[in-house]
């Protein structure tokens, strides 16, 4: 932590003293940052100003040699290697012991030193070592700032990019041989290597990186260990012999320049790093302790060297990263075992040193991956039983060896395995051996250590090697099961586990990482569990810190603890008592349950706050805290050394424990917020009194740990449960962590079965395309696209490159085809072997594993209209069964013509039109039709989504992702009517948008279900919640039975036939179906034009039809009308059969469960709801066949994985048939508030993004219909071939210029701002850390907004965005003061941050960039894309031109802006309501406003004119109300 602080202050590495400081500030500083202020670097961003950059020596050198301006000159400046060497030596401290300051590296990076100078002029043969290291340092900086690092290295040089990079790697690996590297250079060298192995998805990097951990690495093994490994694996032995034979031939044929394989980089680089690490590790701790040095008055003498410590930490992180991915683990782990690296790390003095805490935690993480249960060579995971069997076999081998050859270990040989595996027992037995005996056992007989190892002469080392090899380790799942889910005070303030928001990426952390690949599903779940738990811990810590600062804990004159402050989320505890501790369950040591009562008093609270406390409900998580305020002298002592005390130390927080609410009672003991049904709704009464008793369940694992600690310490130990005096709650939306962690833990304890076609690609191995439908055996040959196509020409446009054969409904060639169409595709080629059950194939990592996909069964025979449906069978939508598009077993059909289709050209598609069946005589029977003209890529996405397998759709802004998703579900429902689809999104807003569009398609409402808290926000009169759907089914039952009763009267049948759904079923069979069959028989005999009208048995029932049923002119037409009426009746009785279950089930809970598990065909929920309710879904037997995820690039990895496993597996097979992921990885990733987890652990990586990085094929929608083409140019460079839909080039709104504004987009340069009576210029400010504001930009932007309002622009068409929460708050204040109360202005539609506005749009966007000292996080290209793509007609950006124009990442967008004036270009006399407007792209002769003052004067003048005109109009009685709509993002 101290190293972080020293580097932040610009003195990184100066001096050797390292004192870890306490955590930073609490929520008062960090809470405002949230997702909307994740700065890449906190301190340097604040300290590095534009003026400093402009006047810097490096900037002047850049201006003369490699800046954009310099390179545009003719002739361009020549490359001078001396400049590189001089910069590296002086600025990057290449010849100095001290590390370079971060500020100097940042200036070089901002100047595009790498892209414009280092890499274009790099030559592998002539480049100096300084040149090589400078490239490595600059790439490290790009990784630290989270910007694309390898993009600048793809420029073609003298050789192709790959060849050039290989040459660079060869130089980089040997740079230590050419010059003596300083310690900070070795850290940079190691860090660059680490970044290479984290970028294996980059083709340029992958080859050179993997060559370092391939089979030649085993040349560094000891001879005995090498022979042992070859003996264990015949396949590896074969490869090894072949490699050795090949090398011998090459040596015989080569000249004197032949390099032996063991001396080549592939075999020597990693072993050389290991040797270097061990040398540093052995000498890092001084002989003088820190206490002794301080006593002598020289603290540096006893301190650990900061850079050496960082090198050791980085190296352990490097090894952990290599072991956590199979391609890099396979051969490396054996080498690490042979060198006993783990034992040497644990025995190193640093491991026990006070400053080695982080190193110790990193070694523990390394230990986990060293012992991970898997076969390194095959990649096969080992079960707990496999691990146990292997362990006991290893112990028994040791016992047999000891029994035969080591008499001193006879007792060990005769002991049982359960005794021998204990560390203490092993140590006791091994102590009987002398050093030579132990050496022979370890190095020669067991081959655990190389006999030439320098530490092989250490008795303690050899004993530790033996013990670590043969002791029994706990399974990780057991550790997780025994782990408390609530954070305690020890974890909350541990900076190594939960870093503060100031993390800059310069130091290591003992945290797992979400890489491209995972060892197995358990490894995947474990990493996500730990990171999700720590992210939740960070958020809880911020809330705790905020509550501590507000509640005002202090002591009165009598030394009693009192609370003088007030906190909305925290209350003093009146009383706390543990009321029950249940006995442990069989086989467990912890209690089965621990229950406690908490009494609080809400008397001093406002009414709204008291209501919030009264609304605490079952399963809410609360936190119990013990506060003991420190004396001022204690705080003074903490700050003496310059450290900042943590909020826990500052406010005296000594204990934190979490708990879950069971029930809440009022002062009279009445139950509040009952969710168990014990209190009926009519019996509910308002709570009595102001005291509340909250019964909570404590964490049993934590309780047992606390009791064990009390017992171990003995007398004098303080009971943590005896002093709780504060109770804290959290916002419900932020308090879901426990349920999510429980879901992850449940998955770790289950056998998580994924579809075979998905498992390997999910873990990151195998062919990335193996899960696509083209490579699976069960493709749909014929697809009924329903209303996807608008006409025949649309079909032709949708399949470019294919010849189409149109057929009429009878299968004959069709010259005038009409919608709708079924498309039959050519028979697929032989499926990819990955999709076949029982077929094994090689993985790219040489592992083999079964990949079985059970083919879906053939469809059941479809009933015809003539027979009518069996009333008791599963229902289907109108016409689907008759069309032969699916059976009742939920399987995918091949379509009616698939089996009989003739062999056709592989490029030819058969397009058969058909006449949709008449659904009935009433308007409500007619299904709605699609009006969207889908593009060819969208049609391919629909086709892919309907087929089994994985479908990935990348949807750039405005390309119709939602429409595509809706059509996929619509077509899928009609092709596979018996299958169920689970719909998942990240946000409630996106889910509701999607759900509302599905409601408007031809999917019956009774099959739709919306789960979660956002259902009430649906803009519909119907209730799609579980209870609402049940009530709708019951109401529908009454309506349908009334129809049956009406029909019974017409048939003169007893009306009791309509009493129940069951009796209605008999009525269907006896009176409806029989009459229909009789009618059909008679009509077929007569076949006259008039017979239908005379014979139709239901004409009285359909007498209220809006149109005449039968015209008597055509038998065929009237017969089809009769069939339509019968289909109406059939659907009605099918609905009644579906209502029967709700009639039989009397309890509301049973009805709700039946609805969710049986009735609903499309179930929609957010990813958070899926994680929260997984246990409930499993208990109810929830089933689904298809999974569609919208916004999947915004969903955390684990929140994408959990919805795939919301159902129990059947017979060891996964039911899931399709996974459809729709998102955009070029926009913002999932929300992760802690920068360390985001930058170091990649927790913000979505599964969608990881699949893209792995090379998974995807479909990118390639036509946008949101923005003007000129506005789309601001972001379409990020996408390949993103074009425009016709509407943005044809509709009048897109063809007309913005009234009063010369351009449809502009960058307005905002200089420093001067407040009234203040001569100090102001740019960005920071009232509290990371709460960035810019008064000048806020005033300028609001003035622009006022100008637009005065020009007639509607307020609801204007949104104001900014990149920081601080600026958002400032903008709202300015709007309230200057606009809200004035009828000419009002409030804009929304004031929000760019991050919060993702997924939304408006006609006109005003954007404030805020920063003037550093670019800030708009440098993240994903955030830039979001900011540039929110507007439809106009985008106006306010910022500091001199800063942002020099940012490399912003150039593709800013280039367009800077081609236009950077001052307002206006047409003040134009008005929004003008009938005739300028064409877009014609700026005319605008008036340029040279400064903000001129703009403000113009607006003031127009305001006075408006007020005068309004006054005159009011006098004449012609005043018009101002239009305004305001939505605050916090109210969403």
TrEMBL record:
A single cellular component GO annotation: catalytic step 2 spliceosome
RNA helicase aquarius insertion domain boundaries: 778-851
Keywords: mRNA processing, mRNA splicing, Nucleus
RNA helicase aquarius beta-barrel domain span: 557-730
Domain DNA2/NAM7 helicase-like C-terminal, residue spans: 1243-1441
Pfam families recorded: AAA_11, AAA_12, Aquarius_N_1st, Aquarius_N_2nd, Aquarius_N_3rd
Major place of residence: nucleus
Subcellular location as annotated: Nucleus
The DNA2/NAM7 helicase helicase domain, residue ranges: 938-1234
Compositionally biased residues, Polar residues: 1-10
UniProt cross-references to Gene3D superfamilies, sorted A to Z: P-loop containing nucleotide triphosphate hydrolases
Keyword match Nucleus: yes
Keyword Nucleus attributed: yes
GO term, biological process aspect, one: mRNA splicing, via spliceosome
Annotated ranges, domain RNA helicase aquarius N-terminal: 58-473
Compositional bias ranges of the Low complexity kind: 854-866
GO molecular function: helicase activity; mRNA binding
Annotated spans, Disordered: 1-43, 803-905
PANTHER family: DNA2/NAM7 HELICASE FAMILY, RNA HELICASE AQUARIUS
Family the entry assigns: Belongs to the CWF11 family.
Protein name as annotated: Intron-binding protein aquarius
